[in-house]
Amino acid sequence: MGTEQGKRTRPWRLVALGALGWGLFTAVVLHIVSSHNPVYDTLSSYTVTDRGEGMLAASVLSLAIGSLAVLGALHAAGVPLSRTTRLLLALWSLGLAAAAVFPASYPEAPDPVSGEIHLYACLVAFLSLPGAAISLLEPLRGRPERVAVVRAVRLSAVAFGLFAISFVLVRLSEAEIGPFPEISDAFPIGVMQRLLLADVGLLFTLLWVATRLESAFDGRGEFGRVAVQAGHPAGVQEHHVVIGGEVAGPFDQRGGHLAGVNRIEHNALGAAEKP
Asked: What is the SS3 assignment for 246?
């Protein structure tokens, strides 16, 4: 079963790594070739650039494809995904794609409708991914991978909070309200927005979780274990379960479920073995 599961998961992992890696590489190259200032210019402003036009959209679309591949890897690895988890990961990918197709509006290329769609698509995306990760915490309870996911979610939340503060300060500065222009200089929006790359780190964490939990189905992980307490009138020997009427060891994976079996059948009329 482990080999079969690995064959199902490997393509998703390769696509995810390739797409996410290409998206990051394209973004780095864009920063190098463009004359924009990464400290004060947002990523969205790279839509209008002297060099590297179209690279931002290509980068964001690549991240969206890689995100869907991460979802596929989690599913193929057997990670229990709720409807909420699937929906939020899909919204993250859809939000990225919409942000790429509908660029932000700037004086050099004004398009208010596209700008509004871009703004709300980004908001939906950056709220959906951490939400999807949080929805995975309960299924991962008791497993060491949960700690890594919690840390990645916290980092993502801090990054989003700092960017939100910077965004509000910029809007207040534009309105020339009180001392906000000076305060805004302490939170340069370009730097704060790039902290949101922590979400890409969260994607890699989820991909790592899929890789780790995949091995739990090959007879060595905790997901493959079934504990049967001795001393109960189960009609079967300790450490064995009945799967579809056949006795199997605790690591039998034919059930394909989280516990590694479809069900545990007990003979209610059987007597417990005498010591």
From this structure: strand
